């Protein structure tokens, strides 16, 4: 797997999200748990067990979910974050107030299963091009409210994060080009407004557009939905004219096509598939008697 850096934001950033998801699930109270148990009255232990193979992602987030309900709950990683697990493998042990374990179970599991599914599919894409210099990057096609965590999961799977939001960098896409009246107009207008050191990326669909993006000094040129032949020609054109320009390929990238795209010589391949097409990794929680 290619090296990547997966860093969770501080809980100062995450806590508001986690609290809102707990509130959504608990509502005015957990009728079942609170009828059976007094708050903090009974200590318990639970195990998380993987029911399918995959890359584990989200255990620190799951631990925080339980701690927001009771700061004495302790989640111990049995399987290291970002590593492969097998069916039947214990991935975590949780100790603490039983009412907190039961109330936090669904939110914590949902997040971990979702993130683990993303990391697992990402790793399959990364493995396809592991021996090539091309890097896999994610996109902004994420679940509203979950972007920061879903992009953490793609990084755990070995991908590189593309921009987190619209304020990270300039990406002039087809609709921007149409709205501005052309690539020249779009780049010129944007460059006069953005602060240093934001980069400018331009989406292109033809060799003519690639040449125009080069003429007006785009920092990154995206080759969108091009045939392999056209993409190879575009890479040669860019390398000959300006070696500093980074090249990104995008559009209909699959596990079957990603290697051929990488062999054209692009620096990056962007795809939403690891996030939009991933299946949740099945994990269950079992209370230990």
Automatic annotation (TrEMBL):
Pathway per the UniProt entry: Cofactor biosynthesis; NAD(+) biosynthesis; nicotinate D-ribonucleotide from quinolinate: step 1/1
SUPFAM superfamilies attached to this UniProt entry: Nicotinate/Quinolinate PRTase C-terminal domain-like, Nicotinate/Quinolinate PRTase N-terminal domain-like
UniProt keyword annotation of Transmembrane present: no
Annotated Quinolinate phosphoribosyl transferase N-terminal domain residues: 30-116
Keywords from the UniProt entry: Glycosyltransferase, Pyridine nucleotide biosynthesis, Transferase
Family annotation (CDD domains): QPRTase
Span of domain Quinolinate phosphoribosyl transferase C-terminal: 118-286
Gene3D superfamilies: Aldolase class I (3.20.20.70), Quinolinate phosphoribosyl transferase, N-terminal domain (3.90.1170.20)
Enzyme Commission number(s) of this protein: 2.4.2.19
A molecular function GO annotation: nicotinate-nucleotide diphosphorylase (carboxylating) activity
Family listed: Belongs to the NadC/ModD family.
Protein name listed in UniProt: nicotinate-nucleotide diphosphorylase (carboxylating)
Organism: Aphanizomenon flos-aquae FACHB-1249
Lineage summary: Bacteria, Bacillati, Cyanobacteriota, Cyanophyceae, Nostocales
